[in-house]
Write a structure and sequence with these properties.
It is a single chain. The chain is α/β, with parallel strands linked by helices. The chain folds into 2 domains: about 130 residues, Response regulator (Rossmann fold); about 55 residues, Winged helix-like DNA-binding domain superfamily/Winged helix DNA-binding domain (Arc Repressor Mutant, subunit A, Orthogonal Bundle). It contains 10 helices and 6 strands. Strands 2-1-3-4-5-6 form a 6-stranded parallel sheet, sandwiched between helices. Helix 4 crosses helix 6 and helix 8 packs across helix 9. The two termini are about 35 Å apart.
């Protein structure tokens, strides 16, 4: 039996995915939760074979969950099921140790097949997205991404500096680098473009 923890913040989608997975004789949903922190607690409590998670959730994102599982050396394998068909997200997911990346508009029968493949040690990645991911280079480093994300949340350079224990000059340098790398003229445009490409 393949034991699954499901993390999805939209109740209707969570219920539908849980019901869909529950139709399979060899796959069992041991817990279904609505946010990232609850997902982390469920992974620790149940030690499931698979965590099936969305990317954007309250608390911890799916990518942060995958990174935490990887950092703690847990055996749970991560499958992301999302609406985000963006190469940047897929690339960051693979770096975080994710072995499955499926889009929510994929045919329902693909989900169970993907879960079995990942459980068996393979990968299940949306093929069109995989092709796009390797043709598109991520220009940002992790610190630039962090600073840009906070700038997009409306924080000033001073607020970002205090949050990240950096000087204001260093924060301005990171923002300037990100703006230059993305080929835009200000931090708002940089944030929007980075979000659109899935770099944040």
């Amino acid at each position: 039996m393949i034991r699954v923890v499901l993390a999805e913040d939209q109740a209707m989608v969570r219920g539908a995915l849980s019901a869909l997975i529950g139709l399979e004789d060899d796959i069992e949903v041991v817990d279904a939760v609505a946010d990232g922190e609850a997902a982390w607690r469920a992974v620790q409590a149940h030690a499931p074979d698979l965590l099936v998670t969305d990317i954007e959730m309250p608390g911890l994102t799916g990518l942060e969950l995958a990174q935490r599982i990887q950092r703690h050396g847990l055996a749970t394998r991560v499958v992301i099921v999302t609406t985000f068909a963006r190469a940047g997200y897929l690339r960051r997911a693979l770096e975080a140790g994710v072995t499955g990346y499926l889009l929510k508009d994929a045919p329902a029968e693909q989900l169970a097949d993907a879960l079995r493949r990942v459980h068996g040690g393979g990968r299940a990645i949306d093929p069109e997205l995989a092709l796009e991911a390797w043709g598109d280079v991520d220009p940002l480093n992790e610190r630039e991404r962090q600073v840009l994300r906070l700038a997009g949340d409306g924080l000033s350079a001073g607020d970002i500096a205090a949050r990240l224990n950096l000087s204001q000059g260093t924060v301005r340098n990171y923002l300037s680098e990100a703006i230059g790398k993305l080929g835009v003229s200000n931090r708002i445009e940089a944030y929007r473009l980075a979000r659109q490409k899935g770099l944040l």
